[in-house]
Specification:
17% strand; four-stranded parallel beta sheet; 110 residues; alpha/beta; Rossmann fold
């Protein structure tokens, strides 16, 4: 059960956020990810990356939380997900022009 101070913490359950797979299905997002370069802004621990990576060309997850990025990086290594990279960064620090993406997502991030 989430405590009042848990809001915004990695892995904090939400009563309003749908399950990750349901969220992508409702968005009818597969055509936007299949064979594409995807940017996940506010990736947290990579919760959507694990569903997107199998169909995407590549996925880059950005989040300002080093703990979330660390967890995502370890999981990618452990599970052999080779087309996903994670960076501690904020969306405003993308450096537009240095990397190109076909699709960007910004899901449940403030």
């Amino acid at each position: 059960m989430a405590e009042p101070g848990d809001i915004g913490r990695i892995g904090c359950p939400s009563v309003v956020r749908p399950g990750d797979d349901l969220e992508l299905r409702r968005l009818r997002a597969v055509p936007y990810f299949r064979g594409k370069g995807v940017l996940d802004i506010g990736t947290g621990d990579g919760r959507l990356v694990w569903l997107i990576a199998p169909m995407a060309l590549s996925v880059v997850g950005l989040d300002p939380d080093p703990a979330g990025i660390g967890a995502a990086t370890r999981r990618a290594r452990r599970e052999g997900v080779r087309n996903a990279r994670f960076k501690v960064s904020i969306g405003q620090a993308l450096g537009v022009g240095t990397e190109r993406f076909d699709t960007a997502i910004f899901s449940w991030s403030l």
